[in-house]
Amino acid sequence: MAVSFLLLLIASSFLQIWASDPLYYESFDEPFEGRWIVSKKEDYDGLWKHSKSDGHEDYGLLVSEKARKYAIVKELDEPIILKDGIVILQFEVRLQNGLECGGAYLKYLRPQKARWTAREFDNESPYTIMFGPDKCGNTDKVHFIFQHKNPKTGKFVEHHLKYAPTVPYDKLSHVYTAILKPDNELRILIDGEEKRKANFLSSDHFEPASIPPKTIPDPDDKKPEDWDERTKIPDPDAVKPDDWDEDAPEEIEDEEAVKPEGWLDDEPEEIDDPGAIKPKDWDDEEDGEWEALKIDNPKCEAAPGCGEWKRPMKMNPAYKGKWHAPLIDNPNYKGIWKPREIDNPDYFELDKPDFEPIIAIGIEILTMQDGILFDNILITRDEKVAESYRAETWKPKYVVEKEKEKPEDDAAGFSDMLSGFQKKVFDVLYKIADIPFLEAYKNKIIDAIEMGEKQANLTIGILVSIVVVIVTVISRVLFGGKKPKAPAAPISETDIAGAAETEVPESSKEKKENDKEDESVPRPRRSESPADLLVTVATAISLVSNGGRKRERDLFRGCICAVGSFALSHLHRFHCDLALGFLRDPLLPFTMGGRKMAAPLFLLLIASSLLQIWASDPLFYESFAEPFEGRWIVSEKEDYTGLWKHSKSDGHEDYGLLVSEKARKYAIVKELDEPIILKDGTVILQFEVRLQNGLECGGAYLKYLRPQEAGWTSKGFDSESPYSIMFGPDKCGSTNKVHFILQHKNPKTGKFVEHHLKYPPSVPSDKLSHVYTAILKPDNELRILIDGEEKKKANFFSMDDFEPALIPPKTISDPDDKKPEDWDERAKIPDLDAVKPDDWDEDAPMEIEDEEAVKPEGWLDDEPEEIDDPESTKPEDWDDEEDGEWEAPKIDNPKCEAAPGCGEWKRPTKRNPAYKGKWHAPLIDNPNYKGIWKPQQIDNPDYFELDKPDFESISAIGIEIWTMQDGILFDNILIDSDEKVAESYRAETWKPKYEVEKEKQKAEDASVSSDGLSGFQKKVFDVLYKFADIPFLESHKIKIIDVIEKAEKQPNLTIGILVSILVVILTVIFRILFGRKKPQAPVSPTTETSNPGAAETETTGSGEEKEENEKDDASAPRLTSGSTRLKRFVSQNSACDDSAFAPVVYGGPNGVLAAAGANAWFEEQAYEIGSAAAGLQSGKSSGLQVKLVDFAQVAEGDGVVGDNFLDGLGLLYWKSLPISDITQANEVVVVRD
After folding, report:
1. Rounded to an integer, what distance in angstroms lies between the CA atom of residue 665 and that of residue 637?
2. Do residues 1161 and 1195 lie in contact, with contact meaning Cβ atoms separated by under 8 Å?
3. In sequence order, what are the beta bridge partners of 687?
4. Using an 8 Å Cβ cutoff, are 358 and 108 in contact?
């Protein structure tokens, strides 16, 4: 037993070592050459470097050049099995120069095909998992993609994590962690903080789902033509009232208004700036007549106004707006139609994903940025190990970088300037604010105190002023305040007076007393808030309990009308006469004969009931059921030329506010009747948006405006109008997020600062209606919902959730503390005693010629690979002086098709067994290592504390956007304090529309584009698709499918077209079977729409065929892409060289323009160009006029279209022709010949 026990003890020890050691770790402390293999594929010309991280002694793997493709791979000593137990994938990336367009992800490769070598690593090399950040165009996410084998078909399918986290937008080091758990759970961490949790088998978390649905809608089940899905319809029997005047304007001139005394009619509001001087380089012919800048007329400053005086407008009491028949229940309503469900033939079951093992780690990216540094790549099975690596390798660097990034601010806090006496006074004032019966006014009192504390030169006078404010509030609560406001329309003063005159008859003496004391009676008014209502009732209780019969009646009348006026805004109909007539007889006895408490209790009961009504109704709601004109005010600022329309949502009877034109700025605002306070209680902001034409570049957010400066009007609303909160979707370039931004006043400086929600949700990419909800809770929690599903939870005071944080850190690094010169942060140093071995040859090359290789028989040494196209002719408008010497485009040499190759034959290279690379001394522990130096921490002079954000109230709701898309429809804007109310609005207003749109989209996706084909034609296409799946046609599969799909889209398909397709496919087959120049490996598209399966199906065939193929691979030269030549490219982009990645747009007969039938149009267009993007989008320029074709005159071949150029091209093209085949703007697109 002793021996057995000893063996068990040894095994346990080794198991502990295995569990604690990582399965793989790469620190890049030593140069990577020899361990990591750089791909030799011709597309990957980016230079990798072993480089220090900026500001550190730590080394990493550096992307050193812009606008390049990179590929490098490290083969593991042993495969890592993912099927059993937990696995953690972790690595660091620092985007030292930012990341506007590029990837920084890792690929964890599965076993490759036979004879694959690391030098062949490219985008077609199959992987098990792809993980890491990626930003370009619409893409801004931390990818997690896994390739999983379908157990029924045997093919690998890509499954993408839905709602992936966004990429941090700074230039700091970040560590990305993916935790794969045996219970099918996936956790994505950024900097150790969980950003996404998912389940591998959940259809809500991966697209497509790992397990297909058990049932699917029957594609043959069609909705009956008489099926009516409308729940409500206009009442056909309704008739517009005779007195309803639709033409009455909403506003009319105020005839009672009088021009203010001193108004300067003959003075303009603005005059030419007398100090302005015409620029010396101004050319009137080219630039137009010069005009001096305008400034405010100084003569108008002291006057009430200048220019022509116009009467102000007031509300037209006759205005009713456009009449609409009321909606009634649809007697023919049958509900939302859904096709019947059938069993899914592709359904299968899985207990857990069948992951392939990891045999190598690769980085294969296309990036426009340099400075991307990879470091500390880790694979382990222990979360604590991953956590310890983050703490030891990433955290120290991140802290140093974060401190360095923080701006220095020398502002000192004001609170330290207060004397001891002043501090004591403020302590007393804060205690006064906590008195229970002042609870309703607590915020106002605290505001006054805090404003006093912020004063740099606090005096006794200011303290006394604050005390006066508080005492005034207390006295108003105890003894009543100023007279209430007159009621809002439609109840007028005459209505109220009339109501008072119809009361119980009184003696002349009583009447006289009433007239005399009329001013002291609470007048009927529209209550401004529940608090106002309760104050009115409380005053009534006090006076009724202590006053006489006359006062009881007068006060009773006043309270009933006050309560009713409040109800008017919620019940839409109330009149004091009616209320008093109904309640007078049963209630007046309760105010007489000593029963004085019954009336107050009854009034309190009414107030409570109406308070419940108030609580259940939204604070603000806009359905756009009626035209918006008059209620919403369109900005008159000159930049905002976009036309708003009152329009139906596509496919619905529901109206909304529509963005009707492309490439315009829009601004519109609705002022609220009463400000909405955000400081107390829950507040929900909610609205719907439907991007009916998608959203490539534009915003669809709302701005909740705070009170504006004096003199501001709705017609002056623009981007500078200050707001409390900005919320909603925004997509353009690298931006793809649902914004939540709040402008918060710094209590020390008094300035407003924008605080952006970090890692906001991304915008849904479809064209359906979506509802966006922001829930602000009194415990400082923020929740962002999309379609009722929580996408983000944050805390207003968490520095991890907002940038910059609302509350600055309590301590900061001392800027005067400097690192000692002898401080050594190197944990490891080269061993000075180490000596390079004698047999280590640093000059030995990595690769040498294969001396055993033999030139294939039939090789045509004297024939070039490409020749001038004999059918091409020089264009008639070609100018040799302007355009240069014309060169015919190149084509493949037909003589080379049957030969194994053409041109000079060179021996292929092979790995040099003697290669060892540059020798480096091994690293040893540094005896002088002192750790990472950190400056000492000092108190932050800008630090302050808050219990909750000091939100400004919402006084208006505005939409101020600049968008390249039309068809953006806003609807159902809601502000409320009850989450259930918001939920009910989603269920009633959004959900039915969404379900209809979703079903319609599913039907469109399910239906094929060849619905008009005959049975024979469908069978032909089925056969053609089977051709495309033949294994030995795998390398041509994408081209074949492209040809088939284009043919299916033809509306007038003929037998001739079908025969033509067969000829194309058969030609490809014959070329492969009977010889031609070997096809070039497909260039990988950089968009996500590329065929994910192309890399997964390996070429099959007999052993003899494989042998021949491998021979050809070794001897045939790699094909170069078709020649490209950039004639002219005008750009003012100093950030990066546009021409480096935008040389090709034409692309030959199979290019983007040819596919859209736009070649001729493209060659004729000429525009004045200012910059590649702005010029193409707007036509504005500095005067240079060129043809679009001059931007890229290209021979047939492969090339890349830049995002800004293609964006502009698409914008020009839609103005001239309907286009559907132009590739999406803002994405880099491969155009293949």
Report:
1. 10
2. no
3. 772
4. yes
DSSP H or E stretch at residue 776: strand 769-776
Question: Residues 83, 352: contact at Cβ < 8 Å?
Answer: yes
Q: What is the pLDDT of residues 456-496, one digit of tens each?
A: 444 454 555 555 556 555 555 554 443 333 333 333 333 33
The token pair at 1100 is: 């099959």
Take residue 43 and report the two structure tokens written for it: 């597309």
State the Cα–Cα distance between residues 792 and 775, nearest whole angstrom: 11
Closest alpha carbon to 91 in 169, 168, 174, 22: 174
pLDDT in tens, 414-471: 334 445 556 666 666 766 766 665 666 666 676 667 666 655 444 454 555 555 556 5
* Kind plus residue range of the DSSP H or E element containing 1173: helix 1172-1178
CA atoms within a 13 Å half-sphere pointing along the CA-CB vector of 864: 7
Residues 1230/1198, Cβ–Cβ less than 8 Å: yes
Instruction: Return the residue matching tokens 């921490």.
Output: 937
| Region of residue 141 (phi > 0: left; psi between -120 and 50: alpha; otherwise: beta) | beta
Amino acid identity, residue 1148?
A: G
Cα-only R_g, the chain: 38
The three-class DSSP label of residue 979 is helix
Rounded Cα gap, residues 700 and 771, in angstroms: 12
* CA 743 and chain centroid, separation: 19
Coil, strand or helix at 36 = strand
> Which residues have CB under 8 Å from 10's CB, separation 6+?
none
Quote the crossing angle between the two packed helices 530-546 and 598-616, to the nearest 10°: 180
The whole-angstrom separation of Cα 778 and Cα 948 is 8
CB atoms within 10 A of CB 939: 10
**Alpha-carbon gap, residue 141 to 96, rounded angstroms:** 18
What letter represents residue 378's amino acid?
L
CA dihedral over 539, 541, 545, 550, signed as positive or negative: positive
Structure tokens at 318: 């006759």
CA-nearest of 398, 486, 378 to 55 is 398
Kindly report the number of other CB atoms within 10 A of residue 418's CB atom: 16
How many Å apart are CA 642 and CA 627, to the nearest integer?
A: 17
What's phi and psi for 1122, nearest 5 deg?
-60, 145
Q: CA–CA distance from 882 to each of 306, 874, 1144, 1175, 1190 (Å)?
A: 57, 14, 20, 22, 11
Pairing status of strand 372-380 against strand 24-26: antiparallel
Q: Residues with Cβ < 8 Å from 441, sequence gap 6 or more?
A: 473, 477
pLDDT in tens, 81-96: 988 789 999 999 999 9
Least Cα distance to 426 among 397, 402, 460, 399 occurs for 460
Say how far apart CA 576 and CA 494 lie, in whole Å: 11
From CA 735, how far away is CA 719, in angstroms rounded? 18
DSSP 8-state symbol, 333: B
Tokens linked to 798: 């968490």
Pairing mode of beta strands 341-343, 215-217: antiparallel
- pLDDT tens track for 148-203: 988 888 889 999 999 899 898 889 999 999 999 999 999 999 999 999 999 999 88
Task: Characterize the bridge pairing of strands 156-161 and 139-149.
Answer: antiparallel
pLDDT bucket at 397, cuts 50 / 70 / 90: very high
Q: Which residue has the tokens 């159902």?
A: 972
Distance (Å, rounded) from C-alpha 551 to C-alpha 554? 5
pTM of the shown model: 0.37
Question: What residues are paired with 690 via a beta bridge?
Answer: 769, 969
Dist CA 25 CA 88 (whole Å): 12
Outline where 572-640 has alpha helix (H).
576-587, 598-616
Residue 1161 has which token pair? 């149009």
Give 1156 or 1127, the one with higher predicted confidence.
1156
Interior/surface letters 62-85, b for 16+ CB within 10 angstroms, e for the rest = bbebbbbbbbbbbbbeeebebeee
